[in-house]
């Protein structure tokens, strides 16, 4: 249902490629309930020799599908969404908004759409704050109002802080379910019921090199917890059971 600011949203059009591969275009008031977290990108991720940014695909563990990015900052943003335990699915370049500001026609394609475990939709635009000029700020502000009208969240994100970024990139290596070994995982849960240094706890379970991938996987899934913002993960990082795991 649209909120009280929905009157002017009736003038906003949305174009997208739905989960069944069909391109659609029409009033946002009609299509806002679509599962945009399953949409295909509305534009391709082009790479060419000499370009200053890097494009590619990140495999999202939450939706078990590739998610495109057009810069390292976007890739890190996708990784952070994938790591968030309340995010259950996400898609890149999920739709294109079109509207008129009275003087000219405008368009905007957000970078990501995420679906939360409670059903809430989240629209994400990725741009470091020092690169947000006046025109971009206006577009983001308009997009935020559109999101408010249809009950979505809007987030503008930039560079992740270090060392969180370093730790996130490291843990993402172990996001795949192939790193899950339940006998080892269960023993790790028992050992870290009381907080312990990372390496010391791993060695109580077995061979450290064999145990660490499972330990990092449990950290990725939020079954184990550590302070990822204080310093890079290391031998003395204190690890314990988490109160919020991913379902």
From TrEMBL:
Keywords, ordered alphabetically: Endonuclease, Hydrolase, Nuclease
A GO molecular function held by the record: endonuclease activity
NCBIfam families reported for this sequence: TnsA_like_Actin
Name the UniProt record assigns to this protein: TnsA-like heteromeric transposase endonuclease subunit
Native organism taxonomy: Bacteria, Bacillati, Actinomycetota, Actinomycetes, Kitasatosporales
């Amino acid at each position: 249902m649209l909120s009280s600011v929905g009157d002017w949203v009736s003038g906003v059009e949305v174009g997208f490629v739905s989960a069944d591969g069909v391109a659609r275009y029409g009033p946002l008031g009609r299509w806002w309930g679509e599962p945009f977290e399953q949409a295909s990108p509305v534009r391709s991720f082009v790479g060419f020799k000499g370009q200053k940014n890097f494009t590619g695909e990140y495999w999202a563990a939450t939706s078990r599908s590739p998610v495109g990015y057009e810069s390292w900052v976007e890739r890190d943003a996708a990784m952070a969404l994938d790591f968030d335990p309340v995010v259950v699915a996400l898609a890149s370049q999920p739709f294109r908004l079109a509207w008129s500001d009275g003087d000219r026609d405008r368009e905007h394609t957000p970078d990501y759409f995420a679906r939360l475990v409670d059903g809430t939709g989240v629209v994400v635009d990725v741009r470091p704050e020092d690169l947000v000029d006046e025109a971009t700020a206006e577009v983001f502000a308009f997009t935020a109002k559109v999101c408010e009208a249809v009950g979505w969240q809007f987030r503008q994100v930039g560079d992740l802080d270090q060392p969180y970024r370093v730790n996130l990139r490291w843990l993402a290596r172990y996001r795949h379910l192939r790193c899950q070994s339940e006998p080892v995982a269960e023993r790790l849960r028992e050992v870290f019921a009381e907080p312990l240094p990372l390496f010391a706890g791993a060695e109580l379970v077995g061979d450290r090199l064999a145990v660490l991938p499972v330990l990092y996987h449990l950290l990725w899934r939020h079954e184990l917890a550590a302070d990822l913002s204080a310093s890079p993960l290391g031998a003395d990082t204190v690890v314990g059971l988490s109160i919020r795991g991913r379902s």
